[in-house]
Each structure stands twice: as C-alpha cells, then as structure tokens.
Amino acid sequence: MNVTTVGLDLAKRTFQVHAVDASGSVVVRKALRRSQVLPFFTALPSCLIGMEACGTSHHWARELTMLGHEVRMMPPAYVKPYVKRGKNDAVDAEAICEAVTRPTMRFVAMKSAEQQAALSLHRTRNLLVKQRTQLVNMIRGLLAEFGIDIPEGLERALGLARQIAAKEAAPDVPAMAIQILDLLCAQVLDTHGRLQAIDRSIGALQRADDVARRLSTIPGIGPVGATALAASVADPGQFRSGREFAAWLGLTPSQNSSGGKDRLGRITKMGDRYLRKLLVVGATSLIRRARYKPETADPRLVALLARKPVRVASVAMANKMARVVWAIMARGETYQSRHIPTLAG
Description:
Helices cover 54% and strands 11% of the residues. By secondary structure, the chain is α/β, with parallel strands linked by helices. The model has no long low-confidence stretch (mean pLDDT 93).
C-alpha cells in the first residue's frame, strides 16, 4: 500500500484507521482491535501518523515511533474544526488525517515513560491532598455539631486527630460519634503519611533531575513545581518565546479584538490547570512574603502590589514566572535575580 498519511482514532478496544496516499486518495478505512494495531502498522512502510493527544496517546506514539513511523499528536480542540459532519470514529479518524498535514497545526511533544511516571506522582499527590482536605473538613464538621471547635490550620487538626487515634483525647460526644471519629482520624492520618512519602519521592526526583534543579532556583518554585514543569514540558523548543509558553498555560488575557481595537479580558485559563495552579500558588507565597517583609522582597513586586490588587498581582507574577521557566529550560541556565535581557542588535 502506498500509504503516506494515517489518521488514528485511539480508543480502549476498537481503533479506527483512515489512511491516504500521496494524492490524498483514501487507501484504508477500517477498524482495528487492540491486538491488531501494532501488526497493522508493522506491515506499513514508514509514514506520517496523526492522533489526538489523550491519556494513552504517548504510549502509542512511543510504540509507533519504534516501528519507524513519524507520529504527531494534536490537541483534540484543534482537530474538531476538521470534522465535517456528525460524530463517529471513522469521521474522527478522517479529521485527524486531514489536520495532521496542515502547515500551521500545533503539535504536542511526546513524553517519555519516565516523564509520565513522574507526573503520576503529582496526579496521585493532588488526589490525596483533596482527600485529606475532605477528611479534615468532615472531622471539623462532625465536632462542630457537638459544639467543639478546632482552631484553624491543618497541623492543629492533624494534632487533634493523632490525640484521638492514640486515645489521648476523648471529645465529649456520644459513643457512636466517637466510633466515627476514630475511623476518620485513622483515615486522615494514613492519607497524610502517604502524602509525606510522595513528597519525599518528589524531593528525590528533584535532586536527581538537572532541569528540576535549575527550575528550583526560581523564587516561588519548589520541588513540587519544578518536577511537575520538568515532566510536563517535554520540549521547550516547541514554544517560540516565554510569552507563548505563558499563553499555553492560560496566564495571558483573552482577546475579543476587532476593527483594529484591542479588547482584552480575563486570563484564558487554557492549558494545564495543575501547572497554572502551582505557579499562581508560588506567586501568592512571594506576595505574602513581600507584604510582611518588604525590605527583602523584589522591588518590582512591591511596586506592583502598590498599583494592583493582590489577586491581579499574583497572576501577573505567575505569568512572569512562566516566562522565566521557559528561558531557563530553553537555554539551560539558572535563575539570576538581577538578570538584564540582552537587546537585539
């Protein structure tokens, strides 16, 4: 078969293939079971394969690349405009096959298995943090029903949970409520212990990864943010500038411009929500430090706080941090607090 381009619609069990030759004529349009995918592409000559970036796309991209094919992954939102009518697997595969050949299409860099393993740490940590918060809130709410108030702060709630679990404290509540409290306290302490183990693994990963170590030199970025950025951005060269990287993270204003008039709105909040949250949280920590110790803070941040509300300043700082992150990853440098950009000649 003279196949030059293939659109592959991924699924759990049934995969749809749409292949064309150099003239654009359809050569193959068929469904494949999971066990038939690799044998089918093994028999094909080297060609361009397009697929949507999804949960399993990086695995299949690595497998097909090892067979000698060129694999390009695209955001599903960029493929959608090429769907002509209706919605089924065959139509989606045809749209993928057409979209992958567009010269202005943007592609997702393929992640290695190690990068995906590092991201699994972050996804699990994020889940456990939510579960710990839910359990603490449940304990607070249960005790509040009986007129017992826990002081604010995670450590104070965990301290009381340790006392209840060790039978060092016995709240004045009915026996049935004590039984539920024992269950909740044991659960929240177990979740907290698992979180500490994950944090130790992330710290070890940060010390072992060169990119994460260099990103950790940026104020406001710790081991969690550094390792998440290093694992998520497989190829910083896919972004032409730091501003484009910040726009990819959704930290730039949305536009509704027309007729030569620029109308900017709120930030787009596009891209990876987890990375954007880490940058905003890191910027918020810098702002909190600047408000209490302005003499040790960056003068530009202090001046920004004097002009803008705190939340606007935190997002603006997150945007700046994203640009610094891109520069460090793209140029192999470390953070310099008094860095002066080189002017173009």
